Amino acid sequence: MHAWDTETWSVVSTATVAVVALTVTGLSGWRDRVHARHLAREERRQDRIERTYAEVLTYLSRAPALAQRTAGVGSDPGMARQEIETLEGLVRMHASDEVAKLFREFSGHLDGMLASLIEARMNRGSGAPGEHARTLEAASKHRAALLDIEGQIEQRIRRELGTNRKR
Fold it and tell me: Which of 3-17, 38-52, 121-135, 145-159 is predicted least confidently?
């Protein structure tokens, strides 16, 4: 058996330390890249959520007035159906389950308000004043529900985004 001398051990130990140092440096760099990718992905996700919520809040503030205008003139609301469908898709993809549920509730009441307003408009000239008043009352109840749900959505969004600012 051959014994290694001190010089051989010195070369082997130096090479081992170099390999370990390169491996640790490489692993550290890899870990940093993985972490940076994760942070970038999370930042993009947060940006999409914030843009979706900004669109939702804009829609919430415009929708009831658009429904009233639509019922009054019988035309398409200022927010085209395609825009609304796009917003609904964004909500399904990026909003929390609670915001998405409240948004669906809001949309249901908005549809109900619009239907009631159109029905009231049709009943106005039909000589059925009681029916006209009933449909206006139904529209008013939907409007009150819309305002309540809008407040709930705004509060939930502020909580999710970590802000207490009001619009």
Answer: 121-135
- For residue 149, is it within any domain? yes
- pTM value > 0.85: no
Residue 24 lies in a domain: no
Structure tokens at 145: 């529900």
Give me the mean pLDDT over the 65-75 stretch: 61
* Residue 167 belongs to a domain: no
User: Residue 41 contacts by C-beta under 8 Å, 6 or more apart in sequence?
Assistant: none
d(C-alpha 81, C-alpha 116), whole Å = 19
Alpha-carbon distance 160 to 148, whole Å? 19
Q: Which two tokens stand for residue 146?
A: 């819309």
Domain of residue 53 covers 46-161
* Structural domain total, the chain: 1
